[in-house]
Amino acid sequence: MAPPSSTASFGWWKKKSHAHRGGGTPVVIKMENPNWSMVELEAPSEEDFLRAEHHNTAAPANKTRNRNAKQLTWVLLLKAHKAAGCLTSIASAFFSLGSLVRRRVAAGRTDHPPTSADTHEIQKLRTRFFYSCIKLFLWLSVVLFAFELCAYFKGWHFATPNLQLQYIFQSPLAIKGAFDLLYSSWVLVRVHYLAPPLQFLANACIVLFLIQSLDRLILCLGCFWIRFKRIKPVPKHDDTSDLESGQKGFFPMVLVQIPMCNEKEVYQQSIAAVCNLDWPKSKILIQVLDDSDDPTAQTLIKEEVLKWQEAGANIVYRHRILRDGYKAGNLKSAMNCSYVKDYEFVAIFDADFQPNPDFLRRTVPHFKDNEELGLVQARWSFVNKDENLLTRLQDINLSFHFEVEQQVNGVFINFFGFNGTAGVWRIKALEDSGGWMERTTVEDMDIAVRAHLRGWKFIFLNDVECQCELPESYEAYRKQQHRWHSGPMQLFRLCLPDIIRAKVYIFSNTSCL
Questions:
Q1: How far is the C-alpha of 271 from the C-alpha of 263, rounded, in Å?
Q2: Runs of H (alpha helix) within 263-325
Q3: Is 291 a residue of the active site?
Q4: Which residues fall within 8 angstroms of residue 334, CB to CB, at 6 or more apart?
């Protein structure tokens, strides 16, 4: 509705106009729409002119009339100024949007640079075509929006579409001029060709929303049931003593990988945390997989590895000359080393993760006497979750992801998406699933789906945490989310045929617990 102050002022002017109807220009105010105020001025009659010539003594009435006219003029000027400000804001927003689209189209960048010049040109052309379509759609939307504004100001704003159809079909004489004919044709196009698909898309969105809401409800009920029943994966204990350390437990050969790329800020903490893992030295090998293209970062990381080698840690440094495939290519290259065949499990930690010393002792024992288990995933904890509002919101979002989504799926169906870090894989499961592939940016989800389709089961440990950091700036958060969300649809398209052909039961047994 219109502001109460403007309504009251218009009423006051109306009262003044009627009070001076005998000696001045009448001002009639009509409220024809609850959202708009319409001012109507009556033209002065001949009687008014004669009265003004023969009654010069009516100075107070003239002053009142002049004052009312000035007030109305100021109100109209304020309204015009407000409308001009709105139009200026809309115009600047459109110009900003247009410049952004032009920059996108001119850049022609992709998130996955190809390996050859021909492939690069093809992807560049595809990207330009995609952004050109977006640009065309935006300009079409702007034109149609302007068209609707013109129709609105001509008075064609009705409450329901039925009134519009009645206006067009039952009142043929109402079509006046080329613009009226064009608008009536546009309404017909909207009704017959645009409205049905838009209604279908709206109904599809409602169905998807209901499915997602039902999924969230089931997950929350599952989480409540886990807490109520205190369901928790329990590893099998082993009283066998290790010959080297003399400790009792299950100590298989474990390979630890730390993939990194230009990580000059966090490489020391991650390498130190992994080198301090409580595990027999002869049964662990640490691979620092450095994909840095910065010579300074390479030197610093190599010196840190040499320092820990001198301290007695079983750690090696690997650097690829051909950096194909990003993280997936880095991990795939490391798994091709000849000495990997001597190890049974592989633990993966990103460069910004610092596992606790007992990480392997709390995760690896779950594999004992459980040949169907392919992955043990630990939960993330964040050292900077209270840094600012952005980190607090991320902590809430990821806490739901770990404690509700992954824990419930791990307990009831033994499957969830691998998080790419803070997990221990059975090397046999990786090899059986086809190993790491560079076909998407979500190589962790890719390997998890393929492993599950091959019958491997997963376990999520909500009480085992691995410390890491959250992005503290919006730009870093935007890049992270872009990496996380750019590949799932592509992966779905690639894995859909395998999912359809796979013989995976909906309700898997929970023997892994």
A1: 11
A2: 267-275, 295-310
A3: yes
A4: 257, 259, 287, 289, 318, 340
- Whether the pTM exceeds 0.90: the reply is no
Instruction: State the catalytic residue, choosing from 290, 291, 352, 395.
Output: 291
Q: Which long-range contacts (CB under 8 A, 24 or more apart) does 159-166 make?
A: 161/191, 165/191
Residue length, the chain?
513
Alpha carbon of 490 to those of 1, 319, 321, 496: distances in Å?
47, 29, 28, 10
One-letter amino acid at 444 equals: D
Residue 112, classed as helix, strand or coil, is: coil
In 108-171, which residue ranges form alpha helices assigned H by DSSP? 117-153, 161-169
Amino acid identity, residue 391? T
Q: What percent of the chain has pLDDT over 90?
A: 37
> Does residue 238 carry a pLDDT above 80?
no
342 is catalytic: no
Contact 353, 466 (CB under 8 A): yes
Helical segments of 385-455, H only:
389-400, 407-412, 427-432, 443-453
Q: Active site residue: 290, 350, 352, 444, which one?
A: 444
Contact at 8 Å (CB) between 426 and 367? yes
Task: Give the angle subtended at the CA of 245 by the CAs of 241 and 246, to the nearest 5°.
Answer: 35
